[in-house]
Calcineurin-like phosphoesterase domain-containing protein (Marchantia polymorpha subsp. ruderalis), 806 residues
Amino acid sequence: MERFISCISVLGVLLAASFCQHAEAGKLRFSSDGQFKIVQVADMHYADGAHTKCLDVLPEEMATCSDLNTTAFQWRMIKQEHPDLVVFTGDNIFQRDSSNATASLIAAFAPVIEARIPWAAVLGNHDQEGHMTREEVMAFIVKMDYSMAQMNPNFLHGDRTTIDGYGNYIIEVEGPAGSMFENKSLLNLYMVDSGDYSFIPQVSYYDWIKSNQQVWLQQASAEIQVPQFPSALLNLRPRPELLDESMHLKAYRGVKPRPQTKAASALAFHHIPIPESFTTPNASNLGEKNEASGSPSLNSGFLTTLITMGDVQAAFTGHDHLNDYCGAADGPLFLCYSGGFGYHAYGKAGWPRRSRVITAYLNGNAASWDDVSHIQTYKRLDDDGFTKIDEQTLYTNYVLSPE
Amino acid sequence: MERFISCISVLGVLLAASFCQHAEAGKLRFSSDGQFKIVQVADMHYADGAHTKCLDVLPEEMATCSDLNTTAFQWRMIKQEHPDLVVFTGDNIFQRDSSNATASLIAAFAPVIEARIPWAAVLGNHDQEGHMTREEVMAFIVKMDYSMAQMNPNFLHGDRTTIDGYGNYIIEVEGPAGSMFENKSLLNLYMVDSGDYSFIPQVSYYDWIKSNQQVWLQQASAEIQVPQFPSALLNLRPRPELLDESMHLKAYRGVKPRPQTKAASALAFHHIPIPESFTTPNASNLGEKNEASGSPSLNSGFLTTLITMGDVQAAFTGHDHLNDYCGAADGPLFLCYSGGFGYHAYGKAGWPRRSRVITAYLNGNAASWDDVSHIQTYKRLDDDGFTKIDEQTLYTNYVLSPE
């Protein structure tokens, strides 16, 4: 509701229908053409804007290159792709080189906010390396305009009421306005904090997604996937026709659902890749593997959790700037890198910064939109031609004869 | 208390002091010489006793070999080793070949019960392959005489009140009677159900230890490791000298503790090995690796959990009858196989059935027992010489100048 009011007050009578249609009361929904497009921005490493030099660009580019090139690339993606959501997968700022962390955060996310595009973020391992803690950085992100980020769920396990990390939350994308699914999620986005560094002295390098985060995610996913009958609602307006078909109901979450034969699709986003992201067979990969993975040296079982959940079609990470491939793991479930986006992040001179685009399409047509039919992805290179590469399908669920 | 009464009533005036000293009120404790010895029995595959033939023994042994050889081997281990506890690590019975599962269970555990030795068990993947479910098998085991097994903890997470599997429990081994630690655990045994078969169609083979079991175990371990001050107790009998030293208190759990500088040691037992059991470097192994591992095809993060817990020195599994090595994994933490014990289980003719012995020793002396100083292990082969092999140290924490 806060976001809704903010949307009205900021835009007033000049209200941009395209955004507020998507974001009423903080909601996201598929557009009227049955599509939902996400742009992934990995590893901006934003610091002090014009004062922050680039890393690993060509010698002739160095003199004029700064964080502003990262800003320009974000604008370029927005104008070219018109995303419904931008997901920043961590290392959004490089706080070690930032003279003012909140200023860096404001500058880093300025384009999506100015463009009034809903956005979400998870933390990387560099976001907190300064005066602001991980909790403070995420609390700030949660409050920024058009941010869909949330801190953590109130999740009761044992005698604790929350889970590890900051910024573990779920974004639901509902059906197109006016459709039978306008109050039901058709695509769930699982945002997970993969931590920063190992806290165990004898285990080196990077952190991992903890068991308690995984239990929460499994339970949240299971809740989303099974039929739910809010009794108060049913009392107000009995819908016996839904009860009769309860065996076929999946992902019932709203007030005006139609029985579905499949649960909603889901995608996961986190910063540090899991070990299997790197060991995934190359044969099924589309993209490049140019560096050893910075995945944790321990396997905390997150792939097993994603597969067990059953609704996740792909997980998207950052962290390794020179890896940008998508490969199929067990499940089948795609594990995808995006490749580095930011100019103050390490990279490879002559190998353009890049961004991943992910689009989900619905079965059916304007008369009757149904569940997700397929999910596609490709990348854009920040080169002269704004080259589109590596288009591939991550999931198919075509219904040949929609009702 | 139930076990205490049972102990009295069964044994009456002939009460075997050696057992009831260890097991008063269902408690286990280090003996007066500061030692606690565990015999591990892996994969008995017990069925119908004399009517059940052996697998993979020498041709000349086949005619007279049956489940009774497994029984005889169990008696031989008891008489040779005088264990304080026998741990059965699953596939205790092979229910598929059993005409009466409860009879198989009674026969399988008969020696330890008759010898009045406390014992514990976890389930394997073959225990339930008949009329009795996993839950029923474990419920039966829990109620058997001298069994230390428990079903599951009441563990609240989300809106559920228990965890996956049957037979997830902790056995505490307290200090020697009359010592300062007679009411405090010095060695915790974590018993975990590793399930049976993958429940996900596209994931083949064996099951894995779930995230919710791991969250429970981490929390239980953390509770055991931090100081606890039962307020009711403190009100009855204030002990300000303990409060003053609270920064040094570890693993405070009883009514008469002494401040310790280290948490209790811990060992884990489960049936199906984790993937790292097999990928552990051979260089540090002592024992044989004669078959590919039947570990799950997915990694559910259990090693990460064990390492995170910080108190676990080794994990002991069965399942792969022809592997009997102990190898060091990250942590450092030893992952140990036992090798097959049962004659109706597959094996290798001429390669004797075997059993692992694990002994924990305390620092200090009879005047002042302290925490665990070291943990040793070796195996016994069921051959003519009852050969003892592969003795090795799994953990050292020697205090050179005990108080």
Summary: The first strand of chain A starts at residue 28 and ends at 29. The domain at 27-396 of chain A is CATH 3.60.21.10 (Purple Acid Phosphatase; chain A, domain 2).
